[in-house]
Amino acid sequence: MNPDLRSKGLLAVKIFIPAALLLFVFLSSPTWSRSEGMGAAARDGDLTVSLQPRSPLQGQAVVISIRCRKSSVSPRQLRLLGKTYRTAAVGKGEYKAVCAVPLNAPLGAQPLEIVLADRRTVTRTLTVRKGDYGEEHLRLPAEMANPTSPAHLKQIKNDRRRLRRAYGSSAALIRFSHPFTMPLSSTIITPFGRRRYLNDIPKSPHGGIDLRGKTGTPVPAAAGGRVAFSGRLYYSGNAVIIDHGLDIFSLYLHLNSIAVAVGEQVKQGQIIGTVGSTGRVTGPHLHWGIKVNGIFVDPLEFIKESRLLLQPVGEE
Ligand SMILES: [Zn+2]
User: Fold this and answer.
1) Minimum mean pLDDT among 3-7, 153-157, 302-306: which range?
2) How far is the CA of 209 from the centre of ligand 1 (A)?
3) Fewer beta carbons within 10 Å, N or C terminal of the chain?
């Protein structure tokens, strides 16, 4: 071969291979926010992000596990579908978080943004799948279904204020050390997510599961935490809400009696009250719900997700 041609060929290889490598690195790297530019971006290897599941159903929570090799890329907060989420440090350079997909979330690819300590943003993609939970029609006395009396409306307004305060009390840490368990091992009367019609008027979908139970049956806490609310509400009757950290709350509604006070630390299995029929109900049962950062998620799925949240980063 002509030596001149060979050196030209070598030059082409010398340019082509690094260019192809650069293109590969660019395509396989996380999406950096445009405003921050590409130049100073950390390499993908500095940050490992795992999402479980990657394709959640509407009404499901997603557990995010993050490992970072530099403090500059440690996660500060996460953003999904207009909500901001806290992250909990669980080890050196290891973080966990839980995000929620609302029942009415748009389907398909949704960006999950991770805001880093150096203010850059890394994006991963979740694919939201349709959650089909069915519908049901209920009949209730008119004033119970749609309260109009000033006293009831005043109470409902006051309830909202008390609940806002309760839900604002969480912190960037995991308050439980064992996966969630069902508070009662009885039949599910009404599953999560059912679209409900009260006297033919559409209402918000069922935010939890209704478990069969006789009045007076003791109700244990599904996991350890701190009591964020304990008291009587217009719709929910006697209610206990436990804060499990990371804006995860479990709700126990329509109780006959309450056994815990706000601020109390509860252990998994500790009796928080008894089954009843207080509030807007047609009979005694336990309504058990899980709320993540203001969004109701399927409690049965959350039992599995709570296990993932407790697993060491990298072993999901
Ligand atoms: Zn219910």
Assistant:
1) 3-7
2) 6
3) N
> Do 171 and 51 share a structural domain?
no
Q: Are residues 230 and 102 in the same domain?
A: no
Highest averaged pLDDT of the listed ranges 51-60, 135-144, 307-316? 51-60
Residue 245 confidence (pLDDT): 97
| Predicted confidence (pLDDT) at residue 197 exceeds the cutoff of 70 | yes
Between the CA of 128 and the centroid of ligand 1 the distance, in Å, is 25
Mean pLDDT computed over every residue of the chain: 88
Q: Which two tokens stand for residue 194?
A: 């059912």
Query: Residue 138: which pLDDT band, with cuts at 50, 70 and 90?
Result: confident
Q: Which residues pair with 248 in a beta bridge?
A: 292
CB 96 within 8 A of CB 309: yes
Classify residue 14: in a domain, yes or no.
Answer: no
> Pick the residue with more confidence: 221 or 12?
221
Q: Which of 73, 101, 128 is the last residue of a domain?
A: 128
Residue 10 lies in a domain: no
Rounded to the nearest angstrom, the distance between the alpha carbon of 6 and the centre of ligand 1 is 77
Asked if residue 16 is part of any domain, the answer here is no
Residues, CB-to-ion distance under 5 Å, ligand 1: 210, 287
Paired tokens of 41 = 């971006």
Radius of gyration over every alpha carbon of the chain, rounded to an integer in angstroms: 25
Residue 24 forms part of a structural domain: no
Structural domain for 108, as ranges: 31-128
For the four alpha carbons of 172, 177, 183 and 184, in that order, the dihedral sign comes to positive
* pLDDT for position 40: 32
Angstrom CA distances, 280 to 141, 147, 216, 254, stand at 10, 11, 18, 8
